[in-house]
Amino acid sequence: MNFTGDIGVSMINFILLKVDRFLIGIAFAIKAVGYCLAPTSILKKFAGDREGNVLLIFAVALVPIFLSSAIAVEYSRFSSSYSSIVSSADTALLAASVKMSENPDLDDDEMLEMLKLEFDNYMDANFDSAKHATTFSYTMSFDRDARVVSVSMNLEQNRIFGDVFSNPTLSASPSLASKLVVSQENYVLDIVMCIDTTGSMQLTLDSVQASASSFDAQLRNELGIASNDPRYKIRVRPIYFRDWVDTYYHQLYPWYYRDGLIMASDFFDLDNAPEASSFQTFLDSEYASAGFDYPEAAGACLNEGMRSSWYDTENQTDFPPDENLTVFPIIVVWTDNAIQQLSLTQQYMSPTQPTSYSTFEAQWNNPAIIPQDPKLLVLFGPENFVGWSTVKTWNNYVHGGSIWDGNSSAISIIAENIVKALPDSLRLTQ
What we know:
By secondary structure, this protein is α/β, with parallel strands linked by helices. 47% of the residues lie in helices and 18% in strands. It has 14 helices and eleven strands. A hairpin with a 4-residue loop joins strand 1 (134-143) and strand 2 (148-158).
């Protein structure tokens, strides 16, 4: 006996019988009212009409109503199962990716076997095929050169009203792929902090100084990196800037005027406690003052920032020499003003300053000056002001938000954009 088919036919017969009796009851009721109130009225004629047109029309309409309801129920049920399995498979694939990053020396067969084992374990834990009344199968492939693992899945679900439809099952074949890091990846985040310290910027300066002692811990937390994770090194180089006029007067009256460009000579390694302390000391040494006219010398700060002594991958001793190492240069600017004329900042502040934005952009894209992939330039301030309206067209530029966003949420915004630029970093986060 086909149990599902018998249920469908019996259900239709049952519904028709009930409807028939219900309508006959209504007819008798109307007939009684007709006799009592208006023996010669239309109600009396209607009550005496035994042709059953209404019942026939309803019976015919019941079939498409039933079919459309059944289809809606079937597909809603299948959609829920589909979403559940794709979500579970994504979790399983991510778990397998993390596991494989810990075993880079396995050959292809061993690697595929481990991937399948991790995938099966997570699917068993996250997807209940019995609950969803589904049959699930998959095939997995691994491309070592492309560092990609792919899963092609097949999902089948028996239909509740299978005998009503020509196809007794619903099926789908979703596919997922994940890029794996099968050898150890290490990253040095070299962050140049260009901070406008003219008179209107005291709140920003307070914010940067207040977060200095916890900058490394906060950034690692936002990135999902453990404090002792050896794959990441964070270094920072703060540069304070004002304007060329401040440098001019500082040269004349150094005991009274602050310089227009105050730079840390090199990066502070925040993994090193004494250097982290020196970073705090350097930041705390400055206060907001001066700024004699509208635009400020952000161009000089950008130029000096680009020309920083980025991490030396050839002579480094912090990471094993046989492991991959990526230096990620990041320049972050806090300012509330336009960029001063580049020729003035070249004349008074930064002799290597390009005097045109096309030359400046070429310097930004010069791998001999700054590592290229990845890199970031993040601005907290008005990106449509003079100078910034051109800089915002450079590649790898990101507008982090207003100066107020930079005061309150700079670290989380910086971390968010690092993750976007380093998808493998995110995949390896545990």
